[in-house]
Specification:
Order of helices and strands: HEHEHEEHHEHEEHHHH
Number of helices: 10
Radius of gyration: 20 Å
Strand content: 15-25%
Distance between the termini: 45 Å
Length: 244
């Protein structure tokens, strides 16, 4: 069986078994292959906008003798996937803005899609806002630390979400509520980084740019502190329930 990175393994674990999956931006196809080998996906369309990676994905699919079970397509996002072909769309390893563009352009295809599994590399806050604004509910989240980087990911379904605190969009409500240890590690590192940055900025001449940057850092530290307090409050509540 193909061996996935921890990041892709966690993406695979978020997918509901038995789905017809579109692996958008499949790169070399390892996630698509694993989904079939592990009997997670019913069918897989492995698509990529780039001919090079898609050609490599085809080679890997043939190596693992999956060419009769995984279809490869050259596609810009969901443009070459028809309505009703898939009920799960997976996107990983691309920026959040690109994901939002793909979702926006593919709304007709998404009418029959039951779940989205997304692992954005950036613009995570904006992506969470986009999901809520477009009638999606984030129902599961995960986060891994791999190769000195943090990778949050989420599963969303078509249902209205009403997150009411900005820290939920920044850090992930479910990650916070579950006291995710990787998120906790990230928050501690983020706090140390911005505390040091704040001290450095305070030593500089108060130019317009420096003052603006100080305000940004203060806001980040405010949200960071709220998130850490929430995790610690959830931990304390959990300990109290165990004692009872």
């Amino acid at each position: 069986m193909v061996r996935l990175s921890e990041r892709l393994q966690n993406v695979a674990d978020l997918i509901t078994p038995g789905r017809n999956v579109a692996d958008v931006g499949c790169d070399h196809g390892y996630l698509s292959i694993y989904l079939m080998q592990a009997d997670i996906a019913k069918t897989v369309i492995a698509s990529d906008v780039r001919k090079g990676p898609l050609s490599k994905a085809k080679e890997n699919i043939e190596t693992y003798e999956m060419e009769d079970r995984i279809e490869t397509r050259l596609s810009d996002g969901l443009s070459n996937i028809s309505k009703g072909e898939v009920d799960c769309v997976v996107m990983s390893g691309m920026g959040g803005n690109l994901m939002m563009e793909i979702l926006e352009r593919g709304k007709t295809v998404l009418e029959d899609v039951k779940e989205l599994v997304l692992q954005p590399q950036s613009e995570i806050r904006g992506l969470r806002h986009y999901l809520q604004d477009n009638g999606y509910m984030i129902i599961s989240e995960a986060m891994v630390y791999e190769d000195d980087k943090y990778y949050p990911m989420m599963k969303a379904c078509k249902e209205q979400m009403n997150w009411d605190q900005e820290i939920y969009f920044i850090y992930g409500k479910i990650l916070l509520r579950e006291q995710n240890p990787v998120l906790h590690q990230f928050l501690l590192q983020e706090r140390d980084f911005y505390v040091n940055l704040y001290s450095e900025l305070c030593c500089q001449s108060p130019t317009e740019n420096v003052v603006a940057r100080l305000r940004d850092v203060e806001e980040t530290l405010k949200y960071n502190n709220e998130a850490l307090e929430l995790i610690e409050a959830e931990f304390a509540a959990g300990m109290e329930r165990k004692i009872k």
